[in-house]
Amino acid sequence: MEERSLNIDGINIAFTRRGRGAPLILIHGYPLDRTIWSKVAEMIEDKFDLIIPDLRGFGASDVMEADRSIIGYASDLAGLMERLKVKKAHIVGHSMGGYVALAFAREYTRKTAGLGLIASQVSADSAERKAARHATARQIIKDGIGTVVEGMTPKLSPDAEVQALVRRVIAQQRPLGLAVALDAMAGRPDSTDVLRSLDLPMVIVHGDADELIPVERGREMKSSLPSARYVELPGAGHMPMLENPGAVAEALRFLGAVKEKGIKILDD
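Given the sequence above, the corresponding structure tokens read:
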């Protein structure tokens, strides 16, 4: 396992690289970092060359205030791939990471081998939701991340052990990084067209107890993409990779199976 950082257009992006096989990038959600993928990574490193970054402003990566856009995070990943000489990769994102994955697939389609959306969605924010994100961003800059720690933790999972873990991860994040991410999420476009236009293997994983992005969003994506592999996890909240890592790992192995065996993308 390798842990390092690379300068991508003036921003140091920290990442972990482990395993061997088809390249696969695992993107964390808000307000977290790459450590949420540790359990899943252990289970699939025999199948994939895993690249697990901290998005700009999170974990050990630099904060960049100027660019408050989802595509900015995606461009960092494209730059990371170039530095690592990876021409094409499966792109898998959790929650906000799913928004980044969709932006990546839109902008860098030729670099995208497959797509995975974990507890995420394609819809843009409503006007009300955008206003709430911007307000929270301003509050974080003014008062710090305490409100995020207390407010987000119980919503991320009904599992007490998972709550304890994510509380620690959130508490380590920096106010500016979280504020920039909130503004970026508020400004993201609807990505329904991206999902429908891609001729790629796709995996969608959603917990039916997700309080932040209702399971109906996952079901809607599946209904518009009959060829996608859809996995719905009973009792799981917004953190499937921690609540049921084995099921998430098995779902992601499907991406490798499609590439290696040339099988058609079918849902059982």
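Residues 2-125+188-261 form a domain with the Rossmann fold fold (CATH 3.40.50.1820). Try to locate this feature in the token string yourself.
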